Amino acid sequence: MPLTNFSAATDKGLLRGNNEDSYLSIPERGLWLVADGMGGHEAGEVASAIVVETIQKSTERGNDLVDSIQQAHESVLSAVEEGVGAAGMGSTVVALLSDEHEYQVAWVGDSRAYLWDPDSTGGTLEQISTDHSYVQLLLASGAIAEDEAATHPDKNVITQCIGSQDAGHIRVDSVKGLWRQKQWILLCSDGLTDELSNEMIAQILCDSRSVRDAVNKLVKQALARGGRDNITVQIIESPLNRLSRFQAWWDWLPKIVGDRLWDSLIYGITLLSFILLCFWLLI
Amino acid sequence: MSTVYLAIQLSVGREVALKVMSPVLNADPVFSERFQREANIVGQLSHPNIVSIYDIGRYKSLNYIAMDYLPGGTVHEKMRDGLEAAEVLTVIKEVAKALDVAHTKGYVHRDVKPENILFREDGTAVLTDFGVAKTTSAASKVTNAGTVVGTPHYMSPEQARGHPIDGRSDIYSLGIVFYEMLTGVVPYQAEEAVAIAIKHLTAPVPTLPGQHAVYQGVLNRLLAKNANDRFQRGAEIVEAITAIEETLGGYPARRTPQTNPSDMNVMALFKALLLTSFAVLRIKLSQMGAGVFNWRWTPNRGFFRHPDAKVTEVRTEVDTGENQRNTVVSTRIRKAAHYQEMSSRKLGIVTRGFALLFTASIVWSALCVGLVRFNAPLDQYLPSGLEEFVYSTAASIEGYAERFSRLESAEEQNFASSRPSSASIQNQDFDLLEVEQPDRQSSAHDVNVEEPIPNASPIAKSRYALSVATEPADALIRILNIREKYRDGIELESGRYHLEVSKPGYATHRQWVSLRGGDLTVEHQLEPLHTPGEVLFDTLANGGKGPEMIVIVPGRFTMGQKGEAHLSPERDVHIIRKFAIGKYEVTFADYQQFANATDAAIPDDNRWGQGSRPVINVSWHDAMAYTTWLSEQTGRTYRLPTEAEWEYSARAGSSAANWWGDGAASDRANCKRGCDSDYTGLLSSKTAPVGSFPPNPFGLHDTAGNVAEWVLDCYQNHYIGAPTDGSAVAAENCSSRLVRGGAARDSYTELFSYAREKESAATKSDMIGFRVVREFDY
């Protein structure tokens, strides 16, 4: 697949002494991810590094993104058992797996993914991921309102993370989508979203000309507004150069081989056979 | 985080509880602060129901606090042993007093739970663990980033909501403890922390079991959702409880229930559980309801939905001023551009399987129908099982198509008959029915069908009798495309049926018959199955005997010869159809019968003799006329052999120049040189009676020598483009034919199996005769 244009940056922020965030960019395989480690005493770095490494290896073996994240969870738990890092260490993750037509975003915790879709008069910024946070759940249940959520003191309390001890199995959320031209996907740790509201991020993306420019501006702005946590940002550009005219048709044909050429051949032969059958039997 | 030891303070010799912070956490400001704060707060609170602090300090890397040693255990432990209602009231009163003191000083405990209420030796309850307590005044700004939330069983609604809290939050928590002490369970239970929090926010105050109903009023005020409706201070709780104790006259607050107390208890518990679950259930249901309507489905993606996404829009008003862009930013919730897959991967595999099955079955159906339609010789290429499958597939599909088209035509007829103008058609239909009905019934009686046929039901109208008459009569008859077994005069719905007639020793015959508009009798004469090498002859119409034929097994051979233009290219020929070829050349005796019957002239025999000598002086046209006549006489298909059939039969499996090898004929053929024949001399050569020389491995005599033989093909001076399946080269206005096998006047080198000689079709020569081939229908 053609290499995709992307840009990544990380900063330890102004208050923290270490950077517990990790990120990974493999444009050849269409894999990008951001992991935000936690657990103090440098264990956070260990956890996020294990997550990055495990997901990289697991997807390379052809595993599903969701399964790979699940595997990362087990790796962190077994690392703790072996005495690597510290007990209670964990990490959030948000990962993007993309091919020429589709993208899949999977996440655990409160690292976020956004979809930026520019148009001639501006653009829309869509939050792809929903945080696995306590406040998000309260909000979703309707127990609290949007404005209460923004100021909730437990804003940073997450309901699950990779390596959480009490859950043998974590729930990995995932969405898929079809790329459109000129779209960007932004992956970031909560260091960015704590400092910048969605409106500010949208404004910055709208004013940026390239992904590189946008990443720099975002990090700079987050630092200017306090930079209380590690900040990691990745922006990936849509690999689509032209729109596929048969996209809508493909949705209605189940994959057989998985490769478009073979599938179209099979369906072509089937159609031909069907026409012949009709010709023989009904005329 | 910290460990509590039982220690002895040496200076005063008393037992203390020594809380030591884990040294790993020294560097962590959050924990250090928490540790210090606990000491500070407790130090300011002096009350018999609040744990007292003796000392705080640091030894080497260990931070510690020395506190009251409380050997009575926690409420949590006491509950396991069971608590009397009176004890419960005492504990609540004491903790309420403690909270009153703390709240008055401006502290909120924030973590009131059974584990944090301990007992002194004398049974007095003591409130401990002010680790997370906070002053009400200070803005709460402790960052607990990245902690996973615990189980908030004792959390107040305002805590759940994230609002600022005060002492009344502790009073709510105490209410939960009160309920738990009375009933043994916490009121709001759920698997997830969030669900519990939601219940705290929305579920009604639980009802106490019957025997504790007196305390319901107190509980209601403790657990009021709105902080303003609760007891405002600990002192108020103490008053309320004291009042209850007084009305009950100091007796344990236990009314003897008339029914079985355990039943009541269970019922009340059940009711409480039901009520509390209801709120959560309602929320979940409304979420699910909204979710269901969002579902979409395509075969490629399976089930999916577009979730609600928070979308921030940036709109730029294009301004003429340079670098001056006014932008408007707005946020709203709308359907997302991406989608969430709802179906599992297993379902994906199932879809894939179905798709594969669907495409494969359509392709297979088309293939089967095509093969059967074009009468492909399946029996020669496919194993019988597969062949059977092809036939049955084609049969069932044709059956469906038949039924479908019948349905359509029936509709058309209905439509037509409903119109008055087509009255004649209607009448015809009636006529047909009237004639048919009695006819069918009588025939049914005749063949004595076991099942009684329903009288004139509309379905029965379209059933007709099918019988198959075979020769010989004891053949096995099957109908391949239906389940029912064939019996003579079987009643079948109209349609197409695939018959199979078989008998050991005879060729199996398959045939499609169409049963429509009347009874049908199919006649079939079984072909005896001729085995390769078998000698057979057909009987002529006048009772005479046809030429003796040998059955040849089909096969492959290499035809032609490299290096000679008229024999090139050398190529593989695959003879597919079984045939029989004359054992001998056609003799004068054979030809005589033809001549007599058709008044044709008898050719000149050169005075060599007739009878069993091969017929000579016949043109290609004469030979053709003979085969045509023979076919008419026998009812079989006779013709001249094709060039390929001739060479295949002459070679008889040998790839050498002749069937005996590459050498001279030496007594194996009638030729002039290299044959040592008695019929050829230096001056004259004449034909030998057929069969004077030994046969080749296929049993054919005189393929080499004696007379050259006409073949069916048109002559080309090469083999380019000649068929490779054993059929003849055909051409319009063909002027030249050819002969094969050499003659008595040739040398043995002209007798080779591959040798060919161009001749005009009209040529009559004393060295040219022919032999015939009989085709089989199967």
Structure, described:
The complex is a heterodimer of chains A (283) and B (778). With 283 residues, chain A is α+β, with helices and mostly antiparallel strands. Chain A is built from 9 helices and 10 strands. Chain A has helices at 43-60, 65-81, 134-140, 146-150, 190-195, 198-207, 211-224, 247-251, 260-282; strands at 6-11, 21-26, 31-38, 90-98, 102-108, 112-119, 122-127, 173-178, 184-188, 231-237. In chain A, the strands form 2 sheets. Chain A has a 5-stranded antiparallel β-sheet. A 5-stranded antiparallel β-sheet of chain A has the order 2-3-4-5-8. The longest helix of chain A is centred in the C-terminal third of the chain and has 23 residues, at 260-282. The model of chain A has no long low-confidence stretch (mean pLDDT 86). Chain B has 16 helices and 30 strands. Chain B starts with a strand and ends with a strand. In chain B, 32% of the residues are buried. In chain B, helix 3 runs antiparallel to helix 5 (167-183), helix 3 packs antiparallel against helix 8 (234-247) and helix 10 packs across helix 12 (384-417). Chain B is 33% helix and 19% strand. Mean pLDDT of chain B is 80; it is low at 136-150, 252-262 and 416-460. Chain B is rod-shaped and about 155 Å long. Chains A and B meet through strand 7, helix 3, strand 8, helix 6 and helix 9 of A and helix 6, strand 11, strand 12, strand 13 and helix 10 of B.
Largest beta sheet of chain B: what is the strand line-up? 20-21-24-30-25
Strand content of chain A: 15-25%
SSE pattern of chain A, N- to C-terminal? EEEHHEEEEHHEEHHHEHH
Strand order of the largest sheet of chain A: 1-10-9-6-7
Radius of gyration of chain B: 55 Å
Q: How many strand elements of chain B?
A: 30
Poorly predicted ranges of chain A: none
**Overall morphology of chain B:** rod-shaped
Please give the oligomerization state of what you see: heterodimer
